[in-house]
Amino acid sequence: MKTLYPLSSFNKTELEGFEKCFCPVVRSYSRGEVIMRLDEENNYVGVIASGTAHLVTTTFDGTKTIIDYFEPGNIFGRRFSPCTQIDPYLVTAKTKCTVWLVEYERVITCCEKRCEKHIRLIDLMILTMARRAQLHVEVLGKRSIRGKLMSYFSHISRSRESRTFVLPLSLSDLADYISVDRSAMMREIKNLNNEKIIVSHANKVTILKDVNV
Amino acid sequence: MKTLYPLSSFNKTELEGFEKCFCPVVRSYSRGEVIMRLDEENNYVGVIASGTAHLVTTTFDGTKTIIDYFEPGNIFGRRFSPCTQIDPYLVTAKTKCTVWLVEYERVITCCEKRCEKHIRLIDLMILTMARRAQLHVEVLGKRSIRGKLMSYFSHISRSRESRTFVLPLSLSDLADYISVDRSAMMREIKNLNNEKIIVSHANKVTILKDVNV
DNA sequence: AAAAGTCTGTTGCATTTGCAACAAAAACGT
DNA sequence: ACGTTTTTGTTGCAAATGCAACAGACTTTT
User: Fold this and answer.
1) Which residues in A lie closer than 8 A to residue B80 (C-beta atoms)?
2) CATH superfamily label, A12-139
3) I need a labelling partner for A49 at 20 to 30 A (CA). Which of A61, A68, A140, A144 fits?
Protein backbone atom coordinates (compact mmCIF):
# COMPACT_ATOMS: atom_id res chain seq x y z
CA MET A 1 0.00 0.00 0.00
CA LYS A 2 1.25 3.45 -0.95
CA THR A 3 2.30 5.73 1.88
CA LEU A 4 0.11 8.78 2.17
CA TYR A 5 1.74 12.19 2.19
CA PRO A 6 2.02 14.14 5.42
CA LEU A 7 1.51 17.62 3.97
CA SER A 8 -1.43 19.86 4.74
CA SER A 9 -1.63 21.69 1.43
CA PHE A 10 -0.92 20.99 -2.21
CA ASN A 11 2.49 21.77 -3.57
CA LYS A 12 2.99 23.17 -7.08
CA THR A 13 3.15 19.81 -8.85
CA GLU A 14 0.10 18.58 -7.04
CA LEU A 15 -1.80 21.73 -7.89
CA GLU A 16 -1.07 21.10 -11.56
CA GLY A 17 -2.14 17.49 -11.21
CA PHE A 18 -5.29 18.54 -9.44
CA GLU A 19 -6.21 20.92 -12.21
CA LYS A 20 -5.78 18.23 -14.88
CA CYS A 21 -7.61 15.57 -12.87
CA PHE A 22 -10.66 17.58 -11.86
CA CYS A 23 -10.92 20.31 -14.51
CA PRO A 24 -12.16 22.77 -11.89
CA VAL A 25 -14.14 25.91 -12.58
CA VAL A 26 -11.75 28.86 -12.26
CA ARG A 27 -12.96 32.08 -10.64
CA SER A 28 -11.27 35.34 -9.74
CA TYR A 29 -12.18 37.67 -6.91
CA SER A 30 -11.07 41.09 -5.77
CA ARG A 31 -10.37 42.08 -2.18
CA GLY A 32 -13.40 41.82 0.06
CA GLU A 33 -15.57 39.79 -2.30
CA VAL A 34 -17.41 36.76 -0.96
CA ILE A 35 -15.95 33.63 -2.54
CA MET A 36 -18.18 31.08 -0.88
CA ARG A 37 -20.97 31.02 1.66
CA LEU A 38 -20.65 27.85 3.71
CA ASP A 39 -24.25 26.83 4.12
CA GLU A 40 -26.28 23.68 3.65
CA GLU A 41 -26.80 24.27 -0.05
CA ASN A 42 -23.13 24.54 -0.77
CA ASN A 43 -21.54 21.46 -2.28
CA TYR A 44 -18.28 22.79 -3.59
CA VAL A 45 -14.67 22.33 -2.65
CA GLY A 46 -12.51 25.36 -3.25
CA VAL A 47 -8.76 25.45 -3.76
CA ILE A 48 -6.84 28.70 -3.54
CA ALA A 49 -4.75 28.97 -6.71
CA SER A 50 -3.39 32.45 -5.97
CA GLY A 51 -3.91 35.18 -3.37
CA THR A 52 -5.28 34.78 0.14
CA ALA A 53 -8.71 34.37 1.69
CA HIS A 54 -10.28 34.25 5.14
CA LEU A 55 -13.06 32.14 6.58
CA VAL A 56 -14.95 34.63 8.69
CA THR A 57 -18.01 34.71 10.87
CA THR A 58 -19.57 37.81 12.39
CA THR A 59 -21.98 37.71 15.30
CA PHE A 60 -24.99 39.99 15.83
CA ASP A 61 -22.91 42.50 17.81
CA GLY A 62 -20.33 42.89 15.10
CA THR A 63 -17.66 40.74 16.73
CA LYS A 64 -15.69 39.18 13.93
CA THR A 65 -13.89 35.88 14.27
CA ILE A 66 -11.43 34.64 11.70
CA ILE A 67 -12.03 30.91 11.72
CA ASP A 68 -9.38 30.09 9.16
CA TYR A 69 -7.13 31.70 6.58
CA PHE A 70 -6.11 30.30 3.24
CA GLU A 71 -3.06 30.59 1.05
CA PRO A 72 -2.27 29.01 -2.33
CA GLY A 73 -2.73 25.25 -2.10
CA ASN A 74 -5.18 25.39 0.81
CA ILE A 75 -8.64 23.95 0.39
CA PHE A 76 -11.99 24.79 1.91
CA GLY A 77 -15.65 23.85 1.63
CA ARG A 78 -18.79 23.46 3.67
CA ARG A 79 -18.43 19.76 4.04
CA PHE A 80 -15.08 19.81 5.78
CA SER A 81 -14.58 23.36 6.94
CA PRO A 82 -16.16 24.36 10.21
CA CYS A 83 -19.52 26.01 9.66
CA THR A 84 -22.54 26.68 11.79
CA GLN A 85 -26.27 26.94 11.44
CA ILE A 86 -26.56 30.31 13.19
CA ASP A 87 -24.12 32.90 11.99
CA PRO A 88 -23.12 32.83 8.34
CA TYR A 89 -19.65 31.52 7.61
CA LEU A 90 -18.12 33.26 4.66
CA VAL A 91 -14.94 32.70 2.70
CA THR A 92 -13.91 36.14 1.56
CA ALA A 93 -10.99 37.36 -0.51
CA LYS A 94 -8.37 39.03 1.68
CA THR A 95 -6.39 39.96 -1.38
CA LYS A 96 -7.16 39.62 -5.05
CA CYS A 97 -7.29 35.87 -5.64
CA THR A 98 -8.00 33.01 -7.98
CA VAL A 99 -9.95 29.96 -6.83
CA TRP A 100 -10.70 26.54 -8.28
CA LEU A 101 -14.07 25.00 -7.61
CA VAL A 102 -15.02 21.30 -7.80
CA GLU A 103 -18.16 19.52 -6.62
CA TYR A 104 -17.65 17.83 -3.28
CA GLU A 105 -19.17 14.53 -4.34
CA ARG A 106 -16.88 14.26 -7.34
CA VAL A 107 -13.99 14.50 -4.93
CA ILE A 108 -15.21 12.28 -2.14
CA THR A 109 -16.39 9.48 -4.40
CA CYS A 110 -13.54 7.42 -5.73
CA CYS A 111 -13.24 7.60 -9.48
CA GLU A 112 -13.52 4.45 -11.59
CA LYS A 113 -9.79 3.80 -11.77
CA ARG A 114 -9.23 4.52 -8.06
CA CYS A 115 -7.06 7.39 -9.25
CA GLU A 116 -4.21 8.02 -6.84
CA LYS A 117 -4.99 11.73 -6.84
CA HIS A 118 -8.46 11.22 -5.48
CA ILE A 119 -7.18 9.22 -2.56
CA ARG A 120 -4.49 11.82 -2.05
CA LEU A 121 -7.04 14.61 -2.12
CA ILE A 122 -9.34 12.90 0.34
CA ASP A 123 -6.42 12.34 2.66
CA LEU A 124 -5.34 15.93 2.20
CA MET A 125 -8.77 17.24 3.06
CA ILE A 126 -8.83 15.23 6.22
CA LEU A 127 -5.31 16.25 7.17
CA THR A 128 -5.81 19.90 6.33
CA MET A 129 -8.87 20.10 8.46
CA ALA A 130 -7.32 18.16 11.28
CA ARG A 131 -4.24 20.34 11.42
CA ARG A 132 -6.09 23.58 11.10
CA ALA A 133 -8.62 22.63 13.71
CA GLN A 134 -5.82 21.30 15.90
CA LEU A 135 -3.93 24.56 15.73
CA HIS A 136 -6.94 26.73 16.30
CA VAL A 137 -8.29 24.72 19.22
CA GLU A 138 -4.82 24.56 20.73
CA VAL A 139 -4.39 28.32 20.48
CA LEU A 140 -7.89 29.24 21.62
CA GLY A 141 -7.60 26.74 24.44
CA LYS A 142 -4.84 28.69 26.17
CA ARG A 143 -6.23 30.61 29.13
CA SER A 144 -4.34 33.87 28.64
CA ILE A 145 -3.53 36.18 25.75
CA ARG A 146 0.14 35.49 26.36
CA GLY A 147 -0.50 31.75 26.13
CA LYS A 148 -2.51 32.15 22.94
CA LEU A 149 0.15 34.31 21.33
CA MET A 150 3.09 32.10 22.22
CA SER A 151 1.22 28.97 21.20
CA TYR A 152 0.46 30.51 17.83
CA PHE A 153 3.93 31.97 17.36
CA SER A 154 5.67 28.72 18.15
CA HIS A 155 3.44 26.87 15.74
CA ILE A 156 4.30 29.29 12.94
CA SER A 157 7.95 29.11 13.93
CA ARG A 158 7.88 25.32 13.70
CA SER A 159 6.10 25.27 10.35
CA ARG A 160 8.55 27.82 8.94
CA GLU A 161 11.49 26.08 10.62
CA SER A 162 12.83 29.43 11.77
CA ARG A 163 12.72 31.53 14.93
CA THR A 164 12.12 34.61 12.81
CA PHE A 165 9.03 34.76 10.67
CA VAL A 166 6.39 37.03 9.21
CA LEU A 167 2.91 36.28 10.43
CA PRO A 168 0.43 35.14 7.79
CA LEU A 169 -2.10 37.52 9.33
CA SER A 170 -2.00 41.22 10.14
CA LEU A 171 -2.01 41.95 13.88
CA SER A 172 -5.60 43.13 13.62
CA ASP A 173 -6.60 39.87 11.99
CA LEU A 174 -4.54 37.89 14.45
CA ALA A 175 -6.61 39.35 17.28
CA ASP A 176 -9.73 38.14 15.52
CA TYR A 177 -8.18 34.73 14.99
CA ILE A 178 -7.14 34.21 18.60
CA SER A 179 -10.39 35.86 19.61
CA VAL A 180 -9.16 38.55 21.97
CA ASP A 181 -9.38 42.32 22.13
CA ARG A 182 -6.85 43.87 19.82
CA SER A 183 -5.59 46.52 22.22
CA ALA A 184 -5.18 43.95 24.97
CA MET A 185 -3.22 41.80 22.54
CA MET A 186 -1.01 44.75 21.57
CA ARG A 187 -0.33 45.38 25.24
CA GLU A 188 0.67 41.76 25.72
CA ILE A 189 2.93 41.83 22.65
CA LYS A 190 4.60 44.86 24.18
CA ASN A 191 5.08 42.96 27.45
CA LEU A 192 6.61 40.01 25.59
CA ASN A 193 9.03 42.43 23.94
CA ASN A 194 9.89 44.14 27.23
CA GLU A 195 10.55 40.79 28.86
CA LYS A 196 12.73 39.85 25.89
CA ILE A 197 10.72 36.72 25.15
CA ILE A 198 10.18 37.89 21.60
CA VAL A 199 11.33 40.76 19.41
CA SER A 200 8.67 42.04 17.08
CA HIS A 201 7.88 44.92 14.83
CA ALA A 202 4.41 44.87 13.33
CA ASN A 203 3.90 41.32 12.13
CA LYS A 204 7.54 40.28 11.91
CA VAL A 205 8.40 38.21 14.96
CA THR A 206 11.49 36.55 16.40
CA ILE A 207 11.17 34.14 19.29
CA LEU A 208 14.06 34.68 21.74
CA LYS A 209 13.04 32.45 24.58
CA ASP A 210 11.10 29.19 24.56
CA VAL A 211 8.28 29.57 27.00
CA ASN A 212 6.17 26.80 28.38
CA VAL A 213 2.73 27.83 27.25
CA MET B 1 -24.94 9.76 -7.57
CA LYS B 2 -25.99 8.70 -4.10
CA THR B 3 -26.65 11.40 -1.57
CA LEU B 4 -24.23 11.29 1.31
CA TYR B 5 -25.59 11.16 4.83
CA PRO B 6 -25.50 14.24 7.02
CA LEU B 7 -24.87 12.50 10.36
CA SER B 8 -21.77 12.94 12.46
CA SER B 9 -21.67 9.50 14.03
CA PHE B 10 -22.68 5.98 13.14
CA ASN B 11 -26.12 4.77 14.04
CA LYS B 12 -26.73 1.20 15.21
CA THR B 13 -27.22 -0.29 11.75
CA GLU B 14 -24.13 1.44 10.46
CA LEU B 15 -22.10 0.23 13.40
CA GLU B 16 -23.09 -3.34 12.57
CA GLY B 17 -22.26 -2.77 8.92
CA PHE B 18 -18.93 -1.28 9.88
CA GLU B 19 -18.04 -4.28 11.97
CA LYS B 20 -18.84 -6.70 9.16
CA CYS B 21 -17.06 -4.63 6.52
CA PHE B 22 -13.82 -3.96 8.38
CA CYS B 23 -13.54 -6.81 10.89
CA PRO B 24 -11.97 -4.44 13.43
CA VAL B 25 -9.86 -5.46 16.37
CA VAL B 26 -12.02 -5.25 19.50
CA ARG B 27 -10.51 -3.92 22.74
CA SER B 28 -11.93 -3.17 26.16
CA TYR B 29 -10.70 -0.58 28.62
CA SER B 30 -11.52 0.36 32.19
CA ARG B 31 -11.94 3.90 33.47
CA GLY B 32 -8.78 5.99 33.18
CA GLU B 33 -6.91 3.68 30.83
CA VAL B 34 -5.18 5.13 27.79
CA ILE B 35 -6.90 3.87 24.66
CA MET B 36 -4.75 5.60 22.10
CA ARG B 37 -1.82 7.97 22.01
CA LEU B 38 -2.22 10.26 19.02
CA ASP B 39 1.33 10.54 17.79
CA GLU B 40 3.11 10.17 14.50
CA GLU B 41 3.46 6.41 14.79
CA ASN B 42 -0.24 5.88 15.24
CA ASN B 43 -2.12 4.69 12.19
CA TYR B 44 -5.36 3.48 13.63
CA VAL B 45 -8.92 4.63 13.48
CA GLY B 46 -10.92 3.96 16.62
CA VAL B 47 -14.68 3.63 16.91
CA ILE B 48 -16.37 3.73 20.29
CA ALA B 49 -18.63 0.68 20.47
CA SER B 50 -19.72 1.24 24.08
CA GLY B 51 -18.90 3.62 26.93
CA THR B 52 -17.33 7.06 26.69
CA ALA B 53 -13.83 8.43 26.16
CA HIS B 54 -12.07 11.79 26.19
CA LEU B 55 -9.35 13.22 24.01
CA VAL B 56 -7.19 15.04 26.52
CA THR B 57 -4.01 17.03 26.56
CA THR B 58 -2.18 18.27 29.65
CA THR B 59 0.38 21.04 29.61
CA PHE B 60 3.54 21.25 31.73
CA ASP B 61 1.74 23.16 34.49
CA GLY B 62 -0.97 20.56 34.84
CA THR B 63 -3.66 22.47 32.99
CA LYS B 64 -5.88 19.89 31.36
CA THR B 65 -7.84 20.57 28.22
CA ILE B 66 -10.51 18.23 26.95
CA ILE B 67 -10.11 18.48 23.21
CA ASP B 68 -12.96 16.15 22.38
CA TYR B 69 -15.26 13.59 23.94
CA PHE B 70 -16.57 10.41 22.40
CA GLU B 71 -19.74 8.39 22.76
CA PRO B 72 -20.82 5.17 20.99
CA GLY B 73 -20.59 5.66 17.24
CA ASN B 74 -17.96 8.40 17.43
CA ILE B 75 -14.63 7.91 15.72
CA PHE B 76 -11.15 9.17 16.44
CA GLY B 77 -7.60 8.75 15.21
CA ARG B 78 -4.36 10.64 14.77
CA ARG B 79 -4.91 11.28 11.13
CA PHE B 80 -8.13 13.21 11.50
CA SER B 81 -8.40 14.14 15.14
CA PRO B 82 -6.60 17.23 16.32
CA CYS B 83 -3.18 16.35 17.71
CA THR B 84 0.02 18.26 18.31
CA GLN B 85 3.74 17.67 18.29
CA ILE B 86 4.36 19.17 21.72
CA ASP B 87 2.03 17.94 24.41
CA PRO B 88 0.83 14.35 24.19
CA TYR B 89 -2.75 13.92 23.05
CA LEU B 90 -4.34 10.92 24.67
CA VAL B 91 -7.66 9.21 24.16
CA THR B 92 -8.55 7.87 27.59
CA ALA B 93 -11.51 5.88 28.84
CA LYS B 94 -13.86 8.10 30.83
CA THR B 95 -15.98 5.08 31.67
CA LYS B 96 -15.48 1.39 31.00
CA CYS B 97 -15.60 1.09 27.23
CA THR B 98 -15.22 -1.08 24.17
CA VAL B 99 -13.41 0.19 21.10
CA TRP B 100 -12.96 -1.06 17.55
CA LEU B 101 -9.66 -0.45 15.83
CA VAL B 102 -8.96 -0.42 12.08
CA GLU B 103 -5.88 0.70 10.17
CA TYR B 104 -6.29 4.18 8.77
CA GLU B 105 -5.07 3.28 5.32
CA ARG B 106 -7.54 0.45 4.99
CA VAL B 107 -10.27 2.97 5.61
CA ILE B 108 -9.04 5.86 3.52
CA THR B 109 -8.17 3.77 0.47
CA CYS B 110 -11.22 2.74 -1.47
CA CYS B 111 -11.76 -0.98 -1.52
CA GLU B 112 -11.83 -2.89 -4.82
CA LYS B 113 -15.58 -2.85 -5.21
CA ARG B 114 -15.89 0.83 -4.23
CA CYS B 115 -17.93 -0.41 -1.31
CA GLU B 116 -20.59 2.09 -0.33
CA LYS B 117 -19.57 1.75 3.31
CA HIS B 118 -16.06 2.93 2.66
CA ILE B 119 -17.25 6.06 0.95
CA ARG B 120 -19.74 6.58 3.73
CA LEU B 121 -17.03 6.13 6.34
CA ILE B 122 -14.69 8.58 4.68
CA ASP B 123 -17.49 11.10 4.46
CA LEU B 124 -18.36 10.43 8.06
CA MET B 125 -14.80 10.99 9.22
CA ILE B 126 -14.65 14.28 7.41
CA LEU B 127 -18.03 15.36 8.73
CA THR B 128 -17.34 14.24 12.27
CA MET B 129 -14.16 16.17 12.41
CA ALA B 130 -15.63 19.21 10.77
CA ARG B 131 -18.57 19.35 13.15
CA ARG B 132 -16.53 18.70 16.24
CA ALA B 133 -13.89 21.23 15.30
CA GLN B 134 -16.64 23.66 14.31
CA LEU B 135 -18.33 23.35 17.66
CA HIS B 136 -15.16 23.62 19.68
CA VAL B 137 -13.74 26.58 17.78
CA GLU B 138 -17.11 28.29 17.92
CA VAL B 139 -17.36 27.80 21.67
CA LEU B 140 -13.74 28.68 22.46
CA GLY B 141 -14.01 31.69 20.16
CA LYS B 142 -16.55 33.42 22.39
CA ARG B 143 -14.89 36.16 24.41
CA SER B 144 -16.62 35.54 27.73
CA ILE B 145 -17.45 32.56 29.91
CA ARG B 146 -21.12 33.40 29.47
CA GLY B 147 -20.72 33.39 25.71
CA LYS B 148 -18.87 30.07 25.76
CA LEU B 149 -21.49 28.47 27.97
CA MET B 150 -24.50 29.69 26.01
CA SER B 151 -22.87 28.79 22.71
CA TYR B 152 -22.23 25.27 23.98
CA PHE B 153 -25.64 24.90 25.61
CA SER B 154 -27.51 26.02 22.53
CA HIS B 155 -25.53 23.61 20.41
CA ILE B 156 -26.43 20.71 22.67
CA SER B 157 -30.03 21.93 22.77
CA ARG B 158 -30.20 21.95 18.98
CA SER B 159 -28.62 18.54 18.61
CA ARG B 160 -31.02 17.08 21.21
CA GLU B 161 -33.94 19.03 19.76
CA SER B 162 -35.01 20.04 23.26
CA ARG B 163 -34.58 23.04 25.52
CA THR B 164 -33.95 20.67 28.41
CA PHE B 165 -30.98 18.35 28.26
CA VAL B 166 -28.32 16.58 30.26
CA LEU B 167 -24.80 17.65 29.39
CA PRO B 168 -22.56 14.95 27.95
CA LEU B 169 -19.78 16.18 30.26
CA SER B 170 -19.61 16.74 33.99
CA LEU B 171 -19.32 20.39 34.99
CA SER B 172 -15.68 19.87 35.91
CA ASP B 173 -14.99 18.41 32.50
CA LEU B 174 -17.03 21.12 30.82
CA ALA B 175 -14.72 23.73 32.32
CA ASP B 176 -11.76 21.88 30.81
CA TYR B 177 -13.54 21.67 27.46
CA ILE B 178 -14.40 25.36 27.27
CA SER B 179 -11.00 26.08 28.77
CA VAL B 180 -11.93 28.32 31.68
CA ASP B 181 -11.48 28.22 35.43
CA ARG B 182 -14.05 25.92 36.96
CA SER B 183 -15.00 28.20 39.82
CA ALA B 184 -15.40 31.14 37.47
CA MET B 185 -17.63 28.98 35.31
CA MET B 186 -19.73 27.94 38.31
CA ARG B 187 -20.16 31.60 39.22
CA GLU B 188 -21.32 32.38 35.69
CA ILE B 189 -23.76 29.45 35.69
CA LYS B 190 -25.17 30.86 38.92
CA ASN B 191 -25.55 34.27 37.28
CA LEU B 192 -27.36 32.69 34.31
CA ASN B 193 -29.74 31.03 36.76
CA ASN B 194 -30.29 34.24 38.73
CA GLU B 195 -31.05 36.14 35.53
CA LYS B 196 -33.47 33.36 34.52
CA ILE B 197 -31.66 32.73 31.26
CA ILE B 198 -31.29 29.07 32.15
CA VAL B 199 -32.40 26.75 34.93
CA SER B 200 -29.83 24.20 35.90
CA HIS B 201 -29.00 21.71 38.59
CA ALA B 202 -25.64 20.04 38.21
CA ASN B 203 -25.39 19.05 34.56
CA LYS B 204 -29.10 19.11 33.74
CA VAL B 205 -29.89 22.34 31.92
CA THR B 206 -32.99 24.08 30.55
CA ILE B 207 -32.62 27.10 28.33
CA LEU B 208 -35.32 29.66 29.19
CA LYS B 209 -34.27 32.59 27.09
CA ASP B 210 -32.50 32.67 23.74
CA VAL B 211 -29.53 34.91 24.13
CA ASN B 212 -27.48 36.37 21.34
CA VAL B 213 -24.07 34.98 22.10
C1' DA C 1 -19.65 0.07 56.01
C1' DA C 2 -15.84 2.87 55.84
C1' DA C 3 -12.58 5.18 53.08
C1' DA C 4 -11.05 7.35 49.07
C1' DG C 5 -11.95 9.89 45.33
C1' DT C 6 -14.69 12.83 42.41
C1' DC C 7 -18.01 16.37 41.58
C1' DT C 8 -20.71 20.45 42.70
C1' DG C 9 -20.96 24.71 44.86
C1' DT C 10 -19.11 29.04 47.14
C1' DT C 11 -16.28 33.32 48.34
C1' DG C 12 -12.57 37.09 48.71
C1' DC C 13 -9.01 39.02 46.37
C1' DA C 14 -5.45 40.06 42.90
C1' DT C 15 -4.77 40.08 38.14
C1' DT C 16 -5.95 40.12 33.51
C1' DT C 17 -8.74 41.49 30.01
C1' DG C 18 -12.00 44.25 27.36
C1' DC C 19 -13.72 48.71 26.20
C1' DA C 20 -13.39 53.36 24.60
C1' DA C 21 -10.96 56.65 22.61
C1' DC C 22 -7.32 58.60 20.37
C1' DA C 23 -3.02 59.35 17.23
C1' DA C 24 0.41 58.23 13.98
C1' DA C 25 2.11 55.27 10.28
C1' DA C 26 1.42 52.53 6.34
C1' DA C 27 -1.09 50.76 2.45
C1' DC C 28 -4.32 51.38 -1.11
C1' DG C 29 -7.17 53.39 -4.79
C1' DT C 30 -7.99 56.79 -8.23
C1' DA D 1 0.05 62.65 -5.57
C1' DC D 2 -3.63 63.09 -2.83
C1' DG D 3 -7.25 61.50 0.05
C1' DT D 4 -9.13 57.39 2.12
C1' DT D 5 -8.89 53.34 4.54
C1' DT D 6 -6.48 50.10 7.15
C1' DT D 7 -3.13 48.93 10.43
C1' DT D 8 -0.24 49.60 14.35
C1' DG D 9 0.41 51.47 18.73
C1' DT D 10 -1.06 53.54 23.31
C1' DT D 11 -3.61 54.59 27.79
C1' DG D 12 -7.04 54.90 31.81
C1' DC D 13 -10.62 52.66 33.76
C1' DA D 14 -14.27 49.34 34.68
C1' DA D 15 -15.49 44.67 34.46
C1' DA D 16 -14.57 39.88 34.02
C1' DT D 17 -11.72 36.17 35.08
C1' DG D 18 -8.45 33.17 37.49
C1' DC D 19 -6.59 31.57 41.78
C1' DA D 20 -6.76 29.65 46.27
C1' DA D 21 -9.12 27.56 49.55
C1' DC D 22 -12.79 25.35 51.56
C1' DA D 23 -17.14 22.32 52.37
C1' DG D 24 -20.73 19.18 51.50
C1' DA D 25 -22.82 15.71 48.28
C1' DC D 26 -22.30 11.93 45.67
C1' DT D 27 -19.70 7.56 43.68
C1' DT D 28 -16.74 4.07 43.61
C1' DT D 29 -13.60 1.00 45.69
C1' DT D 30 -11.93 -1.90 49.26
Assistant:
1) 126-127, 129-130
2) Jelly Rolls (2.60.120.10)
3) A140
